[in-house]
């Protein structure tokens, strides 16, 4: 259950970061990199807070 919540938070943050990056006028590649960074940061943060 804990892992599912952490991954869900990471995925939601990554999608939001990617969409906002594309809407800001950047390329898809930049959006994917921003989403990946947001996912990694969110998962690391959530593991320390929830764990």
Strand coverage percent: under 5%
Shape: elongated
Helix content: over 70%
Intertermini distance: 12 Å
The poorly predicted ranges are: none
Q: How many alpha or pi helices?
A: 2
Q: Name the helix and strand elements from N-terminus to C-terminus, one letter apiece.
A: HH
Largest sheet: none
Q: Structural class of the helices, strands and pairings?
A: mainly alpha
Radius of gyration from the alpha-carbon trace, in angstroms: 12 Å
Number of strands: 0
Q: Give average pLDDT, whole number.
A: 97
Polypeptide structure, described:
By secondary structure, the protein is mainly α. It is built from 2 helices and no strands. 14% of the residues are buried. The model has no long low-confidence stretch (mean pLDDT 97).
SSE blueprint:
Elements: H1 2-23, H2 28-50
Helix pairs in contact: 1-2
Q: Gist?
A:
The chain is mainly α and 51 residues long. 88% of the residues lie in helices and 0% in strands.
Key descriptive features of the protein:
51 residues; mainly alpha; 2 helices
